Amino acid sequence: MESPVPPSNVVIAFDDTRDYSQDELHFAIEGVKLAGCILRRGDTLLMLGVLHKVLHPLGYQLRACPESLTGTSIRAMEEEVSKKVDLYVNMLQKSAEKYADQGVSIEVQITAGFPIKQVIVQEVATCKASWVILERHLRRDLRFYLKQISCKIALIQDSFSADILRPHGASDTDDIEHKLFYTLSKSVPLSNDQSSENSEQSVISCRSYNPLSHSSQENSIMFKSNLTASSSYRSQEQKFLLDFPPSYKQKESGMHTQGENRYTSASQIVQKQHKHVFQQGSLEAPILCAACGTRTDLYLKDSMRFNFSQIRIATNDFSKENLLGEGGYGHVYKGKLKDGQLIAAKVRKEESQQGFAEFHYEVYVLNFARHKNIVMLLGYCCKESQNILVYEYICDMSLDWHLFDKQASVLEWHQRFAIAIGIAKGLRFLHEECRGGPIIHRDLRPSNILLTHEFVPMLADFGLAKWKTSDDPVYTRILGTLGYLAPEYAEDGIVSVRTDVYSFGIVLLQLISGRKASNVDKEEQQQPLRQWAEPLIQKACTTRAHRSSS
After folding, report:
1. Of 16, 43, 443, 500, which one is the catalytic site residue?
2. Are residues 375 and 291 in the same domain?
3. Given 20, 28, 489, 521, which is the most exposed site by the fewest CB atoms within 10 A?
4. In contact, 388 and 381? CB cutoff 8 Å
5. Cα 105 from chain centre
6. C-alpha dihedral (84, 87, 89, 91), degrees to nearest 10
7. What is the 3-state secondary structure (H, E, C) of 10-60?
8. How far is CA 171 from each of CA 126, 142, 325, 370, rounded to the nearest angstrom?
9. 346 assigned to a ligand binding site
């Protein structure tokens, strides 16, 4: 009679500097489960996110190297790791409930360190995983992982299926130099356990390796403190651990923690074996903005078509109080559907000459544009001469308002930096990752960039968007906004992804300087932003070149 397979740790490793939705995480876990031979009853699924870059409070990014960070940077790293852990714990709660009856518990661990591939190898070895499943964006270092990781390996494909790369362990892996890193882990609780008397554990550890020390003496320092938490945990136990890697064998410490958690050697991370009663749950609409609680359904219903009466009721009969703005296409109204979904209804002007073409094209293009930094089209409505596009509602005005309106607060540098990164991510998706080929926006400017209360930028207004189906130049009539048009587009009507890149450069200059691209409202003739900025940029580059050569 064969003995039952003991519970093990299964690791899903991912790059935490990227943004993941609740559904992406859910589908990744589903793909691993459907593989059949990876997850078993009693296993612990560890969602390992590696944060290899952190944002400095002044707005620039740093490598997440704890040994080279000090003071403010260390605190920023700790805060970012803690925020990420809480975010993923909340996002994975429904998944944890779903897989409960199969005896699989889920844990989140975020580790700050650099380089990412070395951190993954080190953490997988530390938790003694039986399987490691690499997220699809880690495929570029597959050869390294296959050589350095001793356990079984799989890869999550773009379709979220798990492709098994090595169904057996390897014993001929190379030793690597272990570096200092900072990590925080938490078990994913169930919704019905949040008021439980039982206290969960979070583990904070900072590990390093001294290549000059070969002593087998125990070299771990642990500090414990009981905290009263305001989160879903009634209390938390925090530990700071300094230890050596598993390649240098040390005596068992025999130190014990709460419940079934136990350190068998100084190189092990606490493994939680909490047993819960799971309940089946459905995924809620993900939060678009945590500040105001706005949510948006990620997936469309069977039909994108709305009834005119639905939109009229949602917008209070297109009342003036709900009017958000007016553009060349038409009026935009705020509304609320019966299910609570906030919408922005874009109603075409009857006298608009280009409205019908824009309408059909925008519906078609936005079917392929689903990204965190792109405003999502929820549906449309056609009624006689009225064409209406229904978008998700973005809660905190446009970038143009935040930059130039007198009532707006001045944006902090870290906010400007985050906005620039988000815009770049949205453009990269349109140009490189959109299914069906690159989409060229053609009218990127601050008034077409909407913001949430968390300053997440969302690209909007795709009425002028152009589909790029080949590498040949596209010639078209010139449409767009003065001051943001690339020279080859303004002069010859040539459209390419560089058209948007040029506009993005102008937006970057506006984020830095707070100046308008061209101010035609002022009586004084203001120099165009590009002409104003070029000599300053050239001077800065020359100064930097002189400093580098001296």
Report:
1. 443
2. yes
3. 521
4. yes
5. 24
6. -140
7. EEEEEECCCCCCHHHHHHHHHHHHHCCCCCCCCCEEEEEEEECEEECCCCC
8. 16, 17, 64, 43
9. yes
Side chain identity at residue 510, one-letter code: Q
Round to whole Å and give the CA distance between 214 and 159.
46
Give the domain range for residue 366. Answer: 287-392
pLDDT recorded at residue 5: 66
* 164 close to 44: Cβ distance less than 8 angstroms: no
Instruction: Measure the CA–CA gap between 354 and 410, rounded to whole angstroms.
Output: 37
321 and 415 in a single domain? The answer is no
Output helix, strand, coil percentages for the chain, rounded to the nearest 5: 30, 25, 45
Distances 380 to 318, 330, 361, 423, 465 between C-alpha atoms, Å = 16, 14, 12, 25, 17
Query: What whole-number distance in Å separates Cα of residue 225 and Cα of residue 239?
Result: 7
Buried-state track 399-425, b at ≥16 Cβ within 10 A, e below 16: bbbbbbeeeeeebeebbbbbbbebbbb
CB atoms under 10 Å from CB of 426, counted, come to: 25
Looking at the 3D structure of the chain, how many domains does it have?
A: 3
Contact by Cβ (8 Å): 34, 84: no
User: 3-state SS string over 135-153?
Assistant: CHHHHHHHHHHHHHCCCEE
Which tokens is 206 given? 């900072």
CA distance linking residue 323 with residue 332, whole number of Å: 6
Our answer to whether residue 443 is catalytic in this structure is yes
In this predicted model, what pLDDT tens digit does every residue of 308-338 receive, in sequence order?
A: 999 999 999 999 999 988 866 678 999 999 8
92: tokens are 């994975």
For position 384, which CATH number holds?
3.30.200.20
- DSSP letter for each residue of 258-269: STT-B-SSTTPP
Strand residue runs (E) in 337-456: 342-348, 377-383, 386-392, 439-440, 449-451
Is this model's pTM higher than 0.90 or not?
A: no
